[in-house]
Amino acid sequence: MKHRYAVITGCSSGFGALMAIELAKIGFHIIATMRNTKKRAFLMDNAKREGIQEQITIHELDVTSSNSIEELKFHLKQLPSVDVLINNAGFAGAGFAEEIPLDEYRRQFETNVFGTIGVTQAVLPFMRTQRKGTIINISSISGRVAFPGLSPYAASKFAVEGWSESLRLEMKPFGVHVVLLEPGSFKTGIWTTGKQVTEKSLEKDSPYYPYMLKIQGYLDKNAPFYEEPIIVAKKAASIAMEDEPSLRYPVGKGVQTKINLKSLLRWKTWEKVILKTLYKN
After folding, report:
1. Residue 8 pairs with which residues in a beta bridge?
2. Which of 16, 146, 183, 228 could in theory staple to 88 by disulfide, Cβ–Cβ 3.0 to 4.6 A?
3. Residues 96, 100: Cα–Cα separation, whole Å
4. pLDDT, tens only, 84-103
5. Which residues have C-beta within 8 Å of that of residue 88, sequence separation ≥ 6?
6. Residue whose C-alpha is closest to residue 177's, from 118, 122, 128, 140
7. What is the mean pLDDT of the chain?
8. Residue 3 scores a pLDDT above 90
9. Can you tell me the distance from the alpha carbon of 189 to that of 150, in angstroms, rounded to the nearest whole number?
10. Of 5, 105, 153, 279, which is the active-site residue?
11. Residue by residue, what is the 3-state secondary structure of the chain?
């Protein structure tokens, strides 16, 4: 395979770092971006073990900064092609809607939605001119099935889903494919160290505090059964090699089942199932 180039955001850990490794292993040169390049050790240590460190270039990128995205565009102009973009950077905001300040919703959307849009806009001229390329937006089961206590994250991923549908239809005539990769719960830390719960919902005098505890208990109870994130990384690498990728790729145990059940069941039935599962006892 001739040299192909992939830009991946959020590569300091989790899905991003593992996807960079998997795509490098199949011959891609990776522009691995991260907000803090001092956190490169996890990625580069693994790359050295695989003997692919020369195929990975670290680039500082804050997806919420227009100036940072402009610097990325300048860097991309030095490349012979931009073949794959994986929009992975993001975090999970949580809490109950009444108590979440608008600024926290805005911060969630700045990263997960506007960050994805901004980086994609930087890459689109290259792919459109080439008349080829694949954009993989990392969505979530939460972009198809929303749960209480996670409205910032779910709303941001629902937005990414709708935007990606529109973008796919816009770019298809130019030979550019837009894909949604929809993981379920994996061992990435997003629901433990990466989850950012609004302060009020963690205070004992909050009317939602007992429900927040139940949701956290549900997440903690199921955490040992979460799958390894390498599954998602390998799926991303597989998609990157497809000539005609589909729009959506749910990945993880039970993800497709949840999506199917939500579409098949009446809302009242679905609602009872979710509330009983999360708030029992």
Report:
1. 32, 86
2. 16
3. 6
4. 999 999 999 999 999 999 99
5. 8, 9, 10, 11, 14, 15, 16, 19, 138
6. 128
7. 94
8. no
9. 15
10. 153
11. CCCEEEEECCCCCHHHHHHHHHHHHCCEEEEEEECCHHHCHHHHHHHHHHCCHHHEEEEECCCCCHHHHHHHHHHHCCCCCCCEEEECCCCEEEECHHHCCHHHHHHHHHHHHHHHHHHHHHHHHHHHHHCCEEEEEECCHHHCCCCCCEHHHHHHHHHHHHHHHHHHHHHHHHCEEEEEEEECCECCCCCCCCEEECHHHHCCCCCCHHHHHHHHHHHHHHHHHCECCHHHHHHHHHHHCCCCCCCEEEECCCHHHHHHHHHHCCHHHHHHHHHHHHHCC
pLDDT tens-digit map of 106-145? 999 999 999 999 999 999 999 999 999 999 999 999 999 9
Domain hosting residue 37, numbered range:
4-279
The yes-or-no answer on residue 153 being catalytic is: yes
The residue type found at 204 is: K
Query: What's the number of domains the chain is made of?
Result: 1
pTM over the 0.90 mark: yes
Rounded CA gap, 226 and 160, in Å?
24
For 21-53, the pLDDT digits (tens) are 999 999 999 999 999 999 999 999 999 999 999
How many whole angstroms separate alpha carbon 147 and alpha carbon 134? 30
In this structure, the strands spanning 84-87 and 248-251 are: unpaired
Q: Which of 18, 4, 2 is nearest to 50 (CA)?
A: 18
Read off the CATH number of the domain in which 102 is found: 3.40.50.720
Contact 32/59 with Cβ under 8 angstroms? yes
Count of residues making up the chain: 281
pLDDT tens string 171-196: 999 999 999 999 998 987 655 555 68
